[in-house]
Each structure stands twice: as structure tokens, then as C-alpha cells.
């Protein structure tokens, strides 16, 4: 178990003075760039396809069920506690897979996976010239200022 935890502590931060972001912190930030602050739990986006504060599509729930052996349904994504759990499980799964492939997960990888699906992490190093790549870059531009602000506040608290 410790061998699975140590890479995450190293990659995503473990120490108070560290300016990196943990996977848990990343997951908890997702709603800040996905929906408006005052959005209800029942918020729907992407023309009716994305549910809740994490804006989860059915395909992500299906992926979560495959990874965990669960039987969640799309409407479960309206529950912010479940959605946080789903996001952590899915991103953790793909991060572990990336490590097994010799790729160190970065915030960009996590953003691409969350927005573009499990295989989208490969587009960080091997960008394509298509609409999906354009959308992933747009998503990264939307999330990055929120992540950087969080890290700045985190750093100021530890110095």
C-alpha cells in the first residue's frame, strides 16, 4: 500500500511548505472552474449532458463504474460528495496508469483527463490538431488561474 501512496506524495505534494497540489486538492477545486459559485447541486451544463458541480457526463460515470465495480447512475453526479469521490477515483486510476507507463502526472494531465476522458492525458505530450485539442487547451486556460491562485494562497499560509 505504501508503494502506491509514496509516488502521489512526491508528485502531488506532501509537505506544508510544498507549492505543489495534491490530487485531493485538485479534485476539490474542480467545481470552481466548472460552475458558478452560486450554482445549485442540480446544475446541468453542456446542453443537458453534464450534471452537478463537477459537470460529470454519463461516460465518466460509466468509466467510474468500470474502474470501481460500482453501479452508479448519471443522476448520482448531482450529489457533490459522490462527485468528489468519483473524480478522485477516476483521476487516481489514470494517474496510477500513467506512472506504470513511466509518465509523471502533472496538473495538465489531470485537466485533460477530467475534460477529455481517460486517454486525453496523452495529448499533453502529443497534441493533435483538432477540435478536441482546442477544447482541452481552452479548458486548461479556464482552470489554470484558479489553480495558481489556490497555490499562491497555500504558499502564503506556509511561509
Description:
It contains 7 helices and 2 strands. The protein has 159 residues and is mostly helical. The protein has one domain: Lysozyme. A hairpin with a 4-residue loop joins strand 1 (44-45) and strand 2. The chain is globular.
Write the layout of secondary structure elements.
Layout: H1 2-12, H2 23-34, E1 44-45, E2 50-51, H3 58-68, H4 80-100, H5 107-116, H6 122-125, H7 131-158
Antiparallel strand pairs: 1-2
Helix pairs in contact: 2-4, 2-7, 3-4, 4-5, 5-7
Question: What level of helicity do the residues show?
Answer: 55-70%
Overall mean pLDDT: 90
**Structural class, please?**
mainly alpha
Rg result: 16 Å
Strand arrangement within the widest β-sheet reads 1-2
CATH architecture: Orthogonal Bundle
Strand content: under 5%
**Which CATH class?**
Mainly Alpha
Count of runs of 4 or more consecutive helical residues: 7
Low-confidence stretches: 1-18
Shape: globular
Largest sheet: 2 strands, antiparallel
Descriptive terms for the model:
159 residues; mainly alpha; Lysozyme; two-stranded antiparallel sheet; 3% strand; globular; disordered N terminus
Would you kindly provide a brief summary of this structure?
By secondary structure, this protein is mainly alpha-helical.
Amino acid at each position: 500500500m505504501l508503494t502506491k501512496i509514496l509516488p502521489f506524495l512526491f508528485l502531488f505534494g506532501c509537505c506544508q511548505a510544498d507549492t505543489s497540489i495534491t490530487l485531493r486538492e485538485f479534485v476539490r477545486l474542480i467545481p470552481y472552474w466548472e460552475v458558478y459559485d452560486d450554482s445549485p447541486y442540480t446544475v446541468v451544463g453542456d446542453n443537458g449532458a453534464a450534471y452537478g458541480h463537477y459537470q460529470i457526463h454519463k461516460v465518466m460515470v460509466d468509466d467510474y463504474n468500470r474502474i470501481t465495480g460500482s453501479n452508479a447512475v448519471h443522476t448520482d453526479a448531482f450529489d457533490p460528495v459522490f462527485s468528489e469521490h468519483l473524480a478522485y477515483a477516476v483521476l487516481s486510476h489514470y494517474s496510477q496508469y500513467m506512472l506504470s507507463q513511466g509518465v509523471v502526472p502533472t496538473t495538465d494531465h489531470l485537466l485533460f483527463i477530467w475534460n477529455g476522458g481517460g486517454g486525453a492525458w496523452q495529448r499533453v505530450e502529443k497534441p493533435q490538431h483538432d477540435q478536441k485539442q482546442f477544447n482541452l487547451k481552452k479548458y486548461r486556460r479556464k482552470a489554470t488561474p484558479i489553480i495558481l491562485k489556490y497555490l499562491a494562497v497555500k504558499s502564503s499560509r506556509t511561509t
